[in-house]
Every structure is written in C-alpha cells, then in structure tokens.
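Figure S7 source data.
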Amino acid sequence: MEFSIKQGSPEKQRSGCVVVGIFEGGKLSDAAQALDKLSKHALSDLIACGDLRGKAAATLLLHNVPNTLCKRVLLVGLGKREEFGARQYRDCARAAMRALQATGAKDALLYLAELPVAGRDSAASTSSGQAWCISQAVLAAYETSYRFDRLKSKPEKEKVTLSKIQFGLITAKPNAALEAALTQAVAIARGMVLAKDLGNLPGNVCTPSYLAQQAIALAKKHKSLKATVLEEKDMKKLGMGSLLSVTRGSAEPAKLITLEYRGGELKQKPIALVGKGITFDSGGISLKPGAEMDEMKYDMCGAASVLGTLQAAAEMGLKLNVVGIIPSCDNMPSGTATKPGDIVTSMSGQTIEILNTDAEGRLILCDALTYAARFEPDTVVDIATLTGACVIALGHVASGLFSNQDKLAQELLAAGEQTQDRAWHMPLWEEYQPQLDSNFADMQNIGGRAGGSITAACFLSRFTKKYRWAHLDIAGTAWKSGKEKGATGRPVPLLTQYLINRANSK
Ligand code: BES
Ligand code: MN
Ligand code: ZN
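Tokens for the predicted BES complex:
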C-alpha cells in the first residue's frame, strides 16, 4: 500500500473514491460541506430523506455524485460531534477502510486528517493533531486489510484492490512533521504485520530455529541490523541453567537470539528489548488442560513484537541504538523434562525451585535479563505473554506494565496512549516479594494465586537490579481468541512510539 499527503479541497480532486465524514444529526465535516456545495446538495438531500444519519462507524457509498471528479463518494458516520474522541476516530477510520476495501477502487482520497478529535491537540487545527489522525488511519488501513492465508491451499477471500491512499488537507499544508508521521505509521504498521505473521504461524513452523532465521533475514535486509544466535552449548557456558531447564523436554533446540540496531552514536547506550519466545507452551510436566491449548503457539508474541519493533526502527532509520534479545524454546513434557521440585541455578547465580513447570516464561526471561546487562543498556524493557492472571486483571484491553522506575513507566504509558496501544501501571511493591520465598532455594518460581501477574513481575525484578527496567505483560493483548482468532501485533505500536520519543528527546 502506498500513502501520501495532498493539499486541496475535495471539489478539484480526481480519485477512485473520496471519503468524508458526517456527524450525527446531519452535521457535515468541512470536506463534506465542500462536496455538498459542489454537488448541489446531494448530501443534504440524503440527510433530509433520512438515509444519512451520521451514526458512528456507519458508511454509505455513493456513485455518480454530480460535479465531482471522483468515481465514488464514501460517507462515514462519525457519531455525536461532542463525543468524538480518539476511540471514536479509530472506529470510524476502520469502518471507512473496510468499506473502501469492499469497493473496486484502486485509489482513495481521505479527508479524515482535519477532523476535530477531542483530546488530540484539536486535530482540526494543529499539526500534531493531524499527524495523529493520519497515523491512526494508516494503522486502520493495514489492520483491516491483513490476511493470514498462506497456509490455506487456496486463499478464501478476494485480494484487496486498493493500493493507493491519499490524505487530503483542506486548510493545512503538507509539512515535514506530517510526512514524518506518515513514514513512522507505515513502519509501525509493517512491524505489526511481521509480529502478527510470526504469531499466527503454528508451532510446527515457527520454532526457535525459525525465529532465529527471521532475525538473520532481517539483518541481511538492513545494514543497520546485526543478528547473533547462541546455541544451547553457548548458553551452558554462560551458566543459563534456568533457561535451559525449560527446553529440556523438547526435541527442538533452544536459541538465544540477539538483534542489534545501530542508528545512534557508537558510545550511546542501547535500549534493550527482551521478548519471551516460547514457541509452544504445553505447560511441561505441569501440563495445561486441553481446551484452547493451541493458543499457546502465541507464547512467542513478545519475541515477535521485538522483531517487529526492530524492523520498524531500521525502516525509519531511527537515531538510536537498540538491542533485541530473544530467549526462545518450547516448553514440553517428556522423560527428560524438568520436574516440579527441581532446583536450578540461573546465570545470576541465584537458585530457583521450580514448583510449576508452566511458569516457564520467567525462567527463560531471568537469564536473558541477566545477559542483557552485557550490553550496558540505558534501559531494558521485557515483553512477555507471562500470566493468565494478567488477563483476569486487565482483560484484553490494556497490557500490564511494571517498572522499577516511575519515570520510565510514565514514558511507556504515554507511548501507549499516543498510539492507542495502551498499558496500565501495576504495583511492584516489596510486600509481594515474600510470596516467592522457598524452603530449599533462593526463590521459587510461583507465588500462589493471589496477584499472579505481580509476583511474576517480582520474580523478574530480582534479575534487573542493575539497570532501569520495565516489564510488559501482554498475555491479554497479544492475540484474540474465538471467531476472530489471530495475533494483534501489539505492543509494536507502544514500543516503536517509545523509541521514536526517545530518539526525539536526544
Ligand atoms: N504462557 C502462559 C501465560 C498465559 C496463559 C498467557 C493463558 C495467556 C493465556 C504462562 O507460561 C503460564 O502458563 N503461566 C501460568 C503461571 C502459573 C503457573 C503461576 C499461568 O498464568 O497460569
Ligand atoms: Mn506456561
Ligand atoms: Zn508461557
């Protein structure tokens, strides 16, 4: 898909489809007003006869609108003007994109960038508001056109013909800030596609070796990226007894993948992103129940989001250094698998009593987090589908955010707010730590049912004392279940926006 920004009122434009918004009660947006005037009130007439009510996310496709140079006009309901905020804008942009893709139009001109979105620096009049509208529309375009049909013998749905999208501006002029927002949004969207594809691939395809190959392929494509893959024997030398205990039951070899992006100065300390890469989580000897176990192929979505974010950083040429670290293996039961009660020694030297082999994410992450210190990171963020308890706490709307520094937490929350890929700040208080006390080792790997996502974060915090660190529990947000089953590409938008903000603040 190709995107561009163009100035000019709708009446003079030629395109396969022009898209304008209508508020509830028949209030026309500026672009709709221009079209209405041009067409001798074709839109007002539709409103008068009750066919066009402006209900949120409703669409109406018109042909042969008098005097326009566009083959089609797509009207999008925006809902009540006084309720028009970020969420409403996003829903309407998605509805518009879906309706557009159902037409035969090859190109479209969207007048959505200057809509008055509440709380977004008044999008109507400020460049940052318009930039926000444009990026959300780009994300909506990618999201609604995403298909994962490469494993079907023949594709089910027709391919989308829409290939060119222009954002029309009536009053504002295209400028560097808007162009930058467009480039960034495309990079984020493409990063999400990569993350979704990897997430959706089944466990028999997307193995640790496959993830390693993906990292190597990315490094081949971008000069600014360098991939390194450590094998089990290397991890053994490093003393990663905790990580290796998880892979013991699997026939697939574990990998520790690092992908380094160099966009900043040589001496600049990198931001490390550590992603959980369990390519299938059966639970191990503490076997999970059968229902929906297939969804545990998504247990590498943290890793996928790291790869997606690094691809985005490389495509944008961000002036920043970033290192992605991905511990990856399967969690399987077998005669060689780790047993409940086993005690292992982590790379940090701390010993861990494994009381439940299904709490494996923290076991691979703790060694990867210890390893991360070798890069002398400025900041470390880990991303993991870590706990079912986080899904109970926050549902499928917000990712859980934990940090040992409040300022970092605020920066990540803000990046999530900006991109509508939101997180919620959870406590990491001392009072929860005793739940991890063990009679036989330095700690145990589970903390009981109470506050399950918090004690998981507490476990990780014992390995991250040397640097500024945050943990994102994406168990509820990385994929959707049921009829719409599929990876979401989250939290690529949050992570990438955080990196953009960091690069801008330098
Ligand atoms: N990958 C799971 C977490 C998970 C479960 C994510 C369901 C999304 C949906 C993780 O490895 C796990 O099994 N966690 C256990 C921890 C428990 C044994 C302390 C859980 O949440 O049940
Ligand atoms: Mn598990
Ligand atoms: Zn898991």
